[in-house]
Amino acid sequence: MQYEIPLYNKFVCAIIIYNNYNKSMYKGGELMSHQALYRRFRSKTFDEIIGQEHVVKTLKNQILSNNVAHAYLFCGIRGTGKTSTAKILARAVNCLNNADGNPCNECEICKSILNETNMDVVEMDAASNNGVDDIRELRDKVKFMPSKSKYKVYIIDEVHMLSKGAFNALLKTLEEPPEHLIFILATTEPQKIPATILSRCQRFDLRRITVEDTVKNMQNICDEIGVEIDEKALKLIAANSDGAMRDALSILDRCLTFGSSKIEYDDVNDLLGIVSFDNIIKVSNAIIDKNLKEIMSLININLNQGKDLLLFIEEIITYFRNMLLYKTTALTDNLVRMTEDNIELLKSHAERISLDQIISIIQKLSEALSECKKSINPRIIFEIKIISLMESSNTISNNEDINNLIKRVEYLESAIKNSSYVNINTKNEHVFNKKPIEKPSRKPKGKLVASDEIMTENNDIVIDTSLTDEDVIKKISNNWNQFLKVIRSENAGLSAIIRESKLSHINNKTIYFEYESKFNFHYTAANQDKNKSKLKEILLGFLKAEYNVDFILKTDKKNQDVKKSMDDVFEDMKTAFGEDKVELK
Fold this sequence. Notes:
By secondary structure, this protein is α/β, with parallel strands linked by helices.
């Protein structure tokens, strides 16, 4: 049985509920409502807009010179200040006390626009007002003069959401608007806007906000509201905002409600649910070392802690992407989500892995990420891809060994054909003719020079006697790639030999180059007198100083000449290609 409340009692109940609601919303005469940080600290002047100096400068100059356009288009990712810039522009063109291009925010017009009570500034969302009828209604209203402002301003957010018919309806008005009308369009996807609309607007592309600018702005906000926060935590928030200030402030807003007296790095890490950088390093180490057991253990630990699998994969991909960029360019400017301490770890990892392996890892993990997004059981997909990645890494390593062996054989064949004397310890001595082959002497080009000069093709190079051993080491080390290019221009074969070495030290005017034990063949070839002589000549032109050269093998403690026999090469070839496919003739 339902009980009907009399009409009078309904009014009484409504009044009681309203009064209780008001009491709950007010404390000490002040409204107890939370305002999001991105709204509370929204930019109110052009000078407060962060990271968009190219846009701000142009707009201020237009306002000061009274050369305001009839239509603007602000493009950029979310949270870069498109709507804020549009609102500031709407106030600036109508401000009564505009002196430097910024709105004063104190005059009657500015205050009414800030309070959203000015009927001459209309903001509409194209996502919910995207039909032809909506634009036709707008087109009819723009004909009327502004009520109290200089310009009537229409801000259309997410304008790319308008239908084709709506764009066509807007076209004529946008092309020939009344003098009192300004359109400000904002979009995250300008490629979806018809060319006929784009050509009628002044377009401004707002950039992603840098990590440095984001951190600085958040620190200023925290200082203003009296919150203590760790700098590493701010950098983590900025890195995860992806260049969007609104996203950064939303994350900071969540951190403020965490309850800690000081916001630490680990607090932000837990709040975002992302994998810590230490765990990313551990996983990367395990992948490089091909330690499948360790990888599976780390996956299990992180997922049991509630970490998001897709974010986990994305972080690993980002780390190897950074490694790829560093290995190919040796630059650190384009690295993502990296601090100075982390970059040193990245460099050590890059030295332990080849370029082909990094590319293969990124490709496999990207495939895993794509498939995991579609799967109902993404963990299984990821684990299968990791196992597949480990197998493919072994294949790449084997292929590299075979390729190195092929290069060694090709170089050996070339040395047999071209060398005046081949000195290889072998049991098959009857195969080689150990008698030196006489070659016609080459006449020197140009004039004879003194012992402290060397004659080049174009000019004389004077020996630099002030060069110290330390200077020589720095010059070769810092210009290693250029040094190899010079060698290659003189002797491509010698360049291939020296490329696998590294500068060791200098002693008694002799530069020592060191080879790892796996480059035994290159070490033997480099020790040939003709190669030493040629390298000494090249060094003279490169350094402008006279130095002898010598080579050492890392595993040879006495720095003696170690020569690999043909039998050893033959056995390596049989192991790599199969005994039935290799025959010594």
